[in-house]
Structure formats: structure tokens, C-alpha cells
Amino acid sequence: MIELKISNIDFDISFAAIPGVDWLPKEPLGADEVELMMKFLAKQKSPQEAMLKALSGYLANKAIKKMVGSRNFSKFKNLLWATKFWAKSNHIYGNQLGFFNGISLAILCAKILFYYPNASVPFMLEKFMLIFSTWNWPMPVKIAENGQNDFEPFNWRPSAYRHFVVITCIVSVKQHILQFCGFVERKLRVQLLHFDQIMDSLVDYSHIKSDQQFGGNDHCPTKIRENNPRFRNPLCKIWLVGVKMKNAPMENNQKSSKNIKLEEYFDEILNKEIDTKIFEQYDAKVLKGWYQHIKMESKYVKWGELDGWDIQTKANE
């Protein structure tokens, strides 16, 4: 996937390497040629999953366009644009963190269009929210049983939370931002779900903010630079996670069964279930015993302490 920005507009271009010069087309490839290429690539000794996904994305989009039809395609595009804008504005867009991506929203929008082919875009947008907020998903949604409105957990704003987790990837060179921090990002979704399950007695749910901070020495949180002096000019990638506590969480002045405070208990679980496990996976798959000047650190932070992490402005978006 090639990510581009032209005139402040983000868009992606699917990329796939052709098997050889014999595959160079005289004309743009059609669906049949793309499908044939996919079958060829899939039969190789070491199939490249990224290439197959890129080609399958093309076929999926082409199939959706055909099913929607030319008569309703303009309405479909407008509905898709509206749902993308909604998802990005509420920080629930980006498949690496388990949120919506372009193809998933396209499928959902097509489904709504099939239900209401003659309806207006605003009407379909309302039905999109209503139908999919009450859809019988495979994973349980806790919103209704907790008596909240359907969209509260999706509206990421700091005022919705009083407890946070700041996850920081710290490296010394830019190459490791893409390599190590990119690996961390791909693993966060699963580890945060595991964290919610372990902390079920205290935590209702956690919601990671889908856009991140990048920075050099001036942008790494002050606490990170102070606590990690061995990084002279650290580069950081930061994720902010809002944590919705249950009605009667363990207060700071109370002791858990382990006789430790809430912050210490959170940090202990975060270090064990997120930092250590993700780093062990990276070591096994990438480092394989080699040393790199990298670190991952997850910390529990209360609402009033965000200023000390130099991310108050970012959180208030």
C-alpha cells in the first residue's frame, strides 16, 4: 500500500509486484486478469500476503461498484464519504487498531443502500447509525447493558474519561519508528482486549485514540525524557487510551488484594500484559537476540496528570 497526500487529501494506492515481464499488460488489467494473477501468486512457495491483499481489495471494490450500479453510485459515494468523515472525526478509523477501514465502510454503506435504494443520503446515514449500532455482532457490545447511549463509547473525547493509559514507543533512529513502533501498533488491539479481560472487575472498556503523535526530542513527553536519560535524542510514537472504569473502581487510597495502589496495580498489569508480551514477540520475530536501542512503556495516567505528559493539547481535539 502506498500512502499519498495531494492538496491535503489523503488517499492510498494498492501496490502489487507482477510475477515477471511477461505479465506486463498492453492495457489496464481487468478483474479476470487480476484474479488470474492472484491464483498464480497464491501457488508460490512463499506467497506474499500483502500483494494478495492489495489485489483482493481491488476486486472487492470492483464487485461493490458493480452491485451498487451506476444509478445509485453517486449516492453510495456520498454516503461512504460521510461515514468516513464520522469515523475519522471520532477516532475509530484505521484497521491496524481494529477500527473501520475503507473497504469495511464500503461494505456497510452498500448494505444500507440495498435496504433503501430510493432514500436520500441523510436518511441512509441515519439508518446506518441505527442499524449497525444495534447489529448482532459476534463480539458483545456493552453499551446497552450499561445504559449508555449508542454512540458514547465511539465519541472519543478526553471529557468522557477520567482514567487513561499512555503507551509510548521510544527509539533512537527514525528507521525504528516504522519497524518497531509499527510492530507495536499492529499488536496493540489484541493486547488491549486482553487487558480489558484481565481488568474486568475494574474496567468497563478501553478505547485507543486512533491518531498518534510523532516527535523528536522536543516532542517526547517530558516524563519520558527524564525517566530515560540513556536516550539522548529520543523519537517517540504515542498512543492515548481512554479507560472507562466501572461504577465502583478501587480508589487510590484503597488497597487491592495485592496491597498496592490503583496506579501501581495498573502499571504492573500494563507492563506484564502489554509491554513485556509485545516486546517478547518483537524479539522472537525481528531481533532474535540482537540489541536495538528501543523501548516500550505503558503508564496509567489520571485526567489531571495529562499536562505532565505534554499531550493535553493533543487530547483536547
UniProtKB/TrEMBL annotation:
GO terms for molecular function: ATP binding; poly(A) RNA polymerase activity; RNA binding. Coiled coil: none annotated. Pfam families: PAP_central. It is found in: Nucleus. It is an enzyme of class 2 (transferase). It catalyses: RNA(n) + ATP = RNA(n)-3'-adenine ribonucleotide + diphosphate. Residues 76-162 form the Poly(A) polymerase central domain. Its EC number is 2.7.7.19. It comes from the Eukaryota. Gene3D superfamilies: 1.10.1410.10. One of its GO terms (cellular component) is nucleus. GO terms for biological process: mRNA processing; RNA 3'-end processing. Keywords: ATP-binding, Membrane, mRNA processing, Nucleotide-binding, Nucleus, Transferase, Transmembrane, Transmembrane helix. The chain crosses the membrane at residues 97-116. PANTHER family: POLY A POLYMERASE, POLYNUCLEOTIDE ADENYLYLTRANSFERASE. Belongs to the poly(A) polymerase family. This is polynucleotide adenylyltransferase. It comes from Globodera rostochiensis (Golden nematode worm).
